[in-house]
């Protein structure tokens, strides 16, 4: 780690992209609050998790660009503590977001399953469905945190503007443990997307009546499906490209846990010049999509006004009652 006797000066000015990011990230983060509240109200676990991951990433982006607008460790925080938490969240982000999209598509497929939707789900089925969603959306991301730590090359890397980043070993063990959860989750999500599309065509003549029996509306269903589908077709090719690029080269050294996690070398950080990583922009795009699809809906707008009124009401002046005399 950097010490007072060994200062690191990589650069002493903020790059223009960092200024843009510092403005947009907190703005988009705030925009996503109405959709989050709306999904909480409707107890939509998958959608809550989807919005949560996007909001968390934009919140981290805003924090990082404020703390590290450039790299000059003479006056800047060295990242200990915060980066240890952030890199674990970054490791869980992609599987967590993809799992949320998976569960959203799975829920939509269940809505269109006319064979099991005649009498509605029983309490046992609801509990089982909640357990499945929690397994995908919560347990899987936590598990990927552990897998990332196993193949983590050092404590963390620190980049100007973008902030904390994990370093993974460039071998087949590291590639497999990070790629497997993503590939599995993406494959299942694509499967449910295909099921939804097939059932949309199959039941297009009775689509509205099926939705009515599930206590949902055409607008709500289509908004959920479109955003889940857009996220999926955006996430899947990008993740496949990254995994292909990160395939270990021929002759890569075999994985050794004791060597990688040697206390004398593992407890260190790497300092990298300022750059805005591509995922910072994709997180902003995802946040804007969430706002446009859910934040502008009638339910979300009504809820936002209701929440705003509840906050403002205690500060309003009481209206004075006046007696009006009517003269004959």
Automatic annotation (TrEMBL):
Family: Belongs to the G-protein coupled receptor 4 family.
Primary location recorded for the protein, binned into one broad class: membrane
Name recorded for this polypeptide: Fungal pheromone STE3G-protein-coupled receptor
Stored CDD domains: 7tmD_STE3
One GO biological process term: pheromone-dependent signal transduction involved in conjugation with cellular fusion
Record InterPro entries: GPCR_STE3
Domain of life: Eukaryota
Keywords linked to the UniProt accession: G-protein coupled receptor, Membrane, Pheromone response, Receptor, Transducer, Transmembrane, Transmembrane helix
A Gene Ontology term for the protein's cellular component: plasma membrane
GO molecular function: mating-type factor pheromone receptor activity
Membrane association type: Multi-pass membrane protein
Subcellular location: Membrane
Transmembrane segments annotated in the record for this chain: 14-33, 45-71, 91-109, 130-151, 179-201, 221-244, 281-297
């Amino acid at each position: 780690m950097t010490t007072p006797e060994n200062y690191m000066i990589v650069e002493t000015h903020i790059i223009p992209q960092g200024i843009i990011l510092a403005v947009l990230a907190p703005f988009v983060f705030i925009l996503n609050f109405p959709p989050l509240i709306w999904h909480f109200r409707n107890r939509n676990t998958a959608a809550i998790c989807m919005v949560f991951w996007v909001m968390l990433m934009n919140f981290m982006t805003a924090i990082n660009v404020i703390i590290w607008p450039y790299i000059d460790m003479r006056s800047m925080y060295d990242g200990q503590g915060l980066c240890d938490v952030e890199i674990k969240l970054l490791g869980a982000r992609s599987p967590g977001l993809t799992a949320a999209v998976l569960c959203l598509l799975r829920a939509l497929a269940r809505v269109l399953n006319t064979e099991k939707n005649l009498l509605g789900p029983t309490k046992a089925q609801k509990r089982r469905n909640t357990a499945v969603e929690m397994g995908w959306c919560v347990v899987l991301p936590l598990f990927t945190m552990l897998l990332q730590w196993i193949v983590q090359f050092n404590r963390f890397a620190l980049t100007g503007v973008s902030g904390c980043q994990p370093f993974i070993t460039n071998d087949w063990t590291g590639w497999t443990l990070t790629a497997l959860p993503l590939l599995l989750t993406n494959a299942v999500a694509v499967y449910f997307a295909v099921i939804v599309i097939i059932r949309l065509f199959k039941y297009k003549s009775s689509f509205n009546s099926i939705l009515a029996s599930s206590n949902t509306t055409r607008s709500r269903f289509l908004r959920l499906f479109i955003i889940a589908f857009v996220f999926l077709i955006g996430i899947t090719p990008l993740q496949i490209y990254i995994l292909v690029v990160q395939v270990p080269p021929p002759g890569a050294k075999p994985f050794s846990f004791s060597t990688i996690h040697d206390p004398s070398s593992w407890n260190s950080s790497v300092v990298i010049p300022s750059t805005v990583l591509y995922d910072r922009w994709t997180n902003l795009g995802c946040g804007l999509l969430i706002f446009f699809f859910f934040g502008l809906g009638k339910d979300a707008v009504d809820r936002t006004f209701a929440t705003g009124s509840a906050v403002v009401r205690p500060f309003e002046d009481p209206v004075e009652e006046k007696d009006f005399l009517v003269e004959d």
